[in-house]
């Protein structure tokens, strides 16, 4: 795509079509990612296109509206966190239909918005599988990218983790597990709090809670943060 052209969703789609492949789509299916609305473009090339396009809130909205898998990944890299509204976050979250788009949008865009913590709280009790996953993927992202919050919001989030730990759906329980580990790796005080949650989950009569507790505690006790 020439850098002198005015970027549009259609020019981006045309680029993605040229760089897609059947082998790329086949690889997606191996990772439980639907490929019926995908071109099969590697993530690194999506990221390269994102850098080329730069940041453009309107373009991100147009890319998302196409419904194409790679276009929605690209939208996360193109959008401006400060321009993202609560309504947009809820709307995109309802559109999540696979873990890859869910996680990419939460890690790359949503966790940098001023609304991130409110969405963790709001989405965590929801029943819809990818909305619930989004809550904990977003929390996971915040443990890395939120450089200003103290321990309090993360301690509150541990309560949300504990409440969600009995959800046995694969994409939910994996996100809850990773969020628990991520909170515990932020600092020593949160490691202690997260480890205590993991131990309570291990003692739970629920098999999913036990699984999450065991997997999280194994990492929390071997990779303690120094600060």
Task: Provide key terms for this protein.
single chain, 227 residues, mainly alpha, Serine Threonine Protein Phosphatase 5, Tetratricopeptide repeat, 2 domains, 0% strand
Task: Give a description of the structure.
- The protein is an all-alpha fold and 227 residues long.
- It has 2 domains: 1-79, no CATH class; 98-227, Alpha Horseshoe (Serine Threonine Protein Phosphatase 5, Tetratricopeptide repeat), CATH 1.25.40.
- 68% of the residues lie in helices and 0% in strands.
- The protein contains 13 helices and no strands.
- The protein has helices at residues 9-19, 22-30, 43-53, 57-65, 69-78, 86-95, 99-108, 116-123, 129-145, 152-164, 170-184, 188-202, 207-222.
- Helix 5 runs parallel beside helix 7 (99-108).
- The protein is globular and about 55 Å long.
- The protein starts with 8 loop residues before the first helix and ends in a 5-residue tail after the last helix.
- The model has no long low-confidence stretch (mean pLDDT 95).
